[in-house]
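User: Could you check the structure of this?
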Amino acid sequence: MQKEVSRSWALFIGIGTMMIAHGLQLQVMGIRSVIENFNVVTTGIFMSGYYIGYFVGSKSTPQLVSKVGHIRVFAAFASLASLSALLAVVYVNPFMWTISRFITGISLVSCYIVSESWLNDRATNKNRGQLLSAYMIVIYLGLSIGMLLLNISDPTNYEPFILVSVLLSLALVPILLTKRSAPKFKKIGTMSIRELYSISPLGSISSFCTGIIHGGFFSLIAFYATKSNLNLFETSILLFISTISGVLGQWPIGYFSDKYDRRSIIVITTFLAALLAFFSILTSNDPIENIYWLSELHLKKILFFIFVGMYTSFCLPLFSLNLAHTNDFVSRDRFVAAGGGLQLIFGFGAISGPLLCSVFMQSFGLNGFFIFLIVFHIFIGVFGIHRMKIRETVTNPDSTFTPIPATITPAGLELDPDTSVNLENNKDN
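Assistant: Sure, the predicted structure tokens are below.
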């Protein structure tokens, strides 16, 4: 694995640096929105701008890459992402921040597509899974480091936004200096939403709800923490724990999903996530009324951090579980198309997630944040139980759980080892 990663050092350093910037920018804007007294719904709206840009970019970038090439597209959109950070610090208002988040979304997904198609060009049957694992680690490690950088300066200052811009500009350097020629890009088709639902109703519904959950959680967790009177250091630690725990939960959950009925694992995982979200309410700084005994616990804040970390360890693997479950019902040569379709469904959910979460917070108070999470997790679990009653278990030896970041594009899905035989055969044709 070290050999393959070292051959792709420029790409990993570039995308890792970009993720550090993204993690910092996302959360500093969430904290700053509280300081600027933005309404929670307003915050949800401008946070949704990122996912709208992500959706637009995922559709337009493949054509652009075919016309001008990988390196130029990566350079152009990394520069645009850098510009969006400066735009946010110069014009501190919800409208301009919505534009900023939209530009960030369209820019980052374009860079994801370039990075993942580049990795695919270097992948073989032997190293495909290793490259995907390394890519996921780089993505989440970069995000978590970016969240720790919240401590470098007060969010009311311009320095955090300038640092984001600098990091995004630095991400260009290793890519532009690489000697290896860029790969030829091939456009990857996706399944329609209707076809995916007919193949796997649970995979489709769960992916949509998972998008809502992920979009709401990561867009508004910093807003929630700041409103809960956590200081800047505590907020950064909470965000770091949330990201790292989500990564660590992927492998054990994946192991059990390959041994037992995957639908059972989805149901158990989502119900446990709902339970941990409820425990987070009980230990938060804004607990539900009449639970006085919790206020006497000296370890209350530590328990809150633990419960939120445990929550993400069950929440983040849901995307990969949905993908593996859907692949149980399709042939190997359609894995990438099915994954691309699920990513589209996930994206629709993520666009609405921040807005829906903000509505819950406005309606139920600060802990409407966790009530929102509980509602959608329970919905996934109940629908999963319903599907288990009307459909028998299906075993597909070609389909296994692969830890995959929720930001993956169809190009990145080709790195799943389950698709390797089909891809190698296509290369020979």
